[in-house]
Design a protein that fits this description.
Layout: H1 2-14, E1 35-37, E2 53-57, E3 62-64, E4 69-77, E5 80-86, E6 91-96, E7 98-100, E8 107-108, E9 113-117, E10 128-136, E11 143-145
């Protein structure tokens, strides 16, 4: 057992550093916007809540893909213009209200404009607000997550194993 502990310790000491930013997201509005409404996941999933964040913007401002992905939806959903992306690992992000400049099946990355921000998002205190959502898994069983926690600019903090 002691030999195993020494081997593990040696491997940890010799291990290179990793980058936590790999696969992390970028702000969909640039420069980094202010958040006008925060994430408020419902519990259980079917109850009321806010399954994303609202970001202050300007009408006609470009909305960018938050990272490398494939466009899986670009059109009207429940009367609202929405763009939805599928990222590697099962993450999906959504953006609304956006007048889409992309098409389903298109590959995008963080430099790709998805379209332009439209005014009219309910409860928006700014000239226009982007509702930005993120979820893991298929929409029928999605686990909604706070997209702000996925940003490359959000520091990663590891918790200690003890105490």
């Amino acid at each position: 057992m002691r030999v195993l502990a020494v081997v593990v310790a040696a491997l940890l000491v010799c291990a290179g550093t990793g980058r936590a930013d790999a696969g992390r997201l970028l702000w969909p509005l640039r420069p980094a916007p202010s958040v006008t409404r925060t994430f408020d996941a419902p519990s259980p999933d079917w109850q009321r809540g806010h399954r994303g964040v609202d970001l202050a913007g300007l009408p006609d401002q470009p909305v960018y893909a938050a990272g490398s992905a494939t466009v899986v939806f670009a059109g009207r959903l429940a009367g609202r213009p929405v763009v939805s992306l599928a990222h590697a690992g099962g993450l999906r992000t959504s953006y609304e209200p956006v007048d889409a400049a992309v098409r389903v099946g298109q590959l995008v990355d963080g430099s790709t404009p998805l379209g332009r921000l439209l005014p009219g998002h309910a409860g928006c205190p700014a000239p226009a607000c982007l509702h930005w959502g993120a979820m893991w898994g298929p929409s029928s069983r999605a686990d909604y997550v706070d997209p702000l926690g996925l940003l490359a600019s959000t520091p990663v903090r590891l918790k200690p194993l003890t105490g």
